[in-house]
């Protein structure tokens, strides 16, 4: 799938003006040409972005969901080109050389895995192994797998729901992460048998994460909604907000056990209880993978040994 930045700008201009004709005038192109560009963008994406009404055009449901990603993508590209095209002499040259130093150890970690991965990495990464410095990036698992497969990262730590998905890289399994239910410690969900949880939810909203991470995987989401007959949702995009809602008994959610490590020692977690779900939901697999060249290095072997010899993190919350 290839999406041009020009098409994204066209899309955002139509959103802003709520009219294809006004957007065409603003962009200094003809209306038929703009309509053709948007139609091609929709064909590339696989869904319709706009629907027409008497006021002009409005976003479809999927178009509305796509909008923030389009804004972020375009802004990221504009930020990058602005920085790299600046003429700041030696200062700019130094900045780009530091960022793009090929000898720097480039590590990508799914943000939800940071509490698990970083302490174990620090035990291996000594002054000798980081002589040229580190570059650590946090991105969703799907992004990391793409980056390491193209050697844009030396090493990546990521989730997989199905290990067979990772055909473009040689993923090394670290451990299987079980799914857990998080709710307020006073809620009846905590003490009910898993098969009867749907009877005690009492319209308590389920927290759905609106980001391209593990818990938004369609397979898991469908299994959860079917299992608990969920009809009410809160939508958030970060763990702290989710835990805050749960701590006030306003919602519950289901995550991987490792995710709970983020705020397990935070005061917000003091009123949250954890209920393991065992085999009621698919397990999540935490893997690591190195680029083709990095897999041959001694540091890769050391990191692999440290990660595979580490016990699965205990989840003692609640």
Automatic annotation (TrEMBL):
This is HTH lysR-type domain-containing protein. InterPro entries: LysR_HTH_N, LysR_subst-bd, WH-like_DNA-bd_sf, WH_DNA-bd_sf. Keywords: DNA-binding, Transcription, Transcription regulation. PANTHER family: HTH-TYPE TRANSCRIPTIONAL REGULATOR (PTHR30126), TRANSCRIPTIONAL REGULATORY PROTEIN, LYSR FAMILY (PTHR30126:SF96). Gene3D superfamilies: 3.40.190.290, Winged helix-like DNA-binding domain superfamily/Winged helix DNA-binding domain. Residues 3-60 form the HTH lysR-type domain. It holds the Pfam family LysR_substrate. Belongs to the LysR transcriptional regulatory family. GO terms for molecular function: DNA binding; DNA-binding transcription factor activity.
């Amino acid at each position: 799938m290839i999406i041009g930045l020009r098409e994204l700008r066209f899309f955002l201009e139509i959103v802003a003006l709520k009219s294809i004709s006004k957007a065409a005038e603003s962009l200094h192109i003809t209306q038929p040409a703009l309509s053709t560009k948007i139609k091609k963008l929709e064909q590339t994406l696989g869904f319709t972005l706009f629907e027409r009404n008497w006021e002009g055009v409005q976003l479809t449901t999927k178009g509305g969901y796509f909008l923030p990603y389009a804004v972020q993508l375009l802004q990221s590209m504009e930020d990058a080109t602005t920085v790299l095209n600046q003429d700041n002499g030696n200062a700019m040259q130094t900045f780009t050389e530091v960022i793009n130093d090929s000898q720097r150890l480039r590590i990508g970690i799914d943000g939800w895995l940071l509490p698990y991965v970083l302490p174990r990495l620090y035990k291996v990464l000594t002054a000798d192994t980081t002589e040229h410095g580190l570059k650590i990036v946090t991105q969703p698992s799907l992004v990391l797998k793409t980056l390491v497969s193209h050697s844009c990262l030396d090493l990546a730590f990521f989730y997989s729901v199905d290990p067979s998905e990772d055909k473009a890289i040689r993923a090394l399994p670290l451990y299987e992460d079980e799914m857990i239910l998080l709710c307020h410690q006073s809620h009846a969900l905590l003490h009910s048998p898993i098969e009867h949880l749907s009877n005690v939810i009492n319209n308590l909203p389920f927290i759905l994460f609106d980001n391209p991470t593990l818990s938004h995987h369609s397979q898991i989401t469908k299994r959860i909604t079917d299992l608990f007959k969920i009809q009410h949702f809160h939508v958030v995009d970060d763990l702290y907000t989710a835990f805050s809602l749960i701590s006030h008994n306003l919602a519950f959610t289901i995550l991987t056990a490792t995710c709970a490590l983020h705020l397990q020692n935070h005061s917000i977690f003091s009123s949250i209880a954890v209920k393991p779900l065992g085999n009621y939901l698919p397990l999540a697999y935490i893997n690591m993978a190195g680029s083709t060249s990095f897999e041959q290095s001694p540091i890769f072997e050391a990191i692999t040994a440290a990660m595979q010899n580490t016990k699965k993190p205990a989840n003692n919350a609640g």
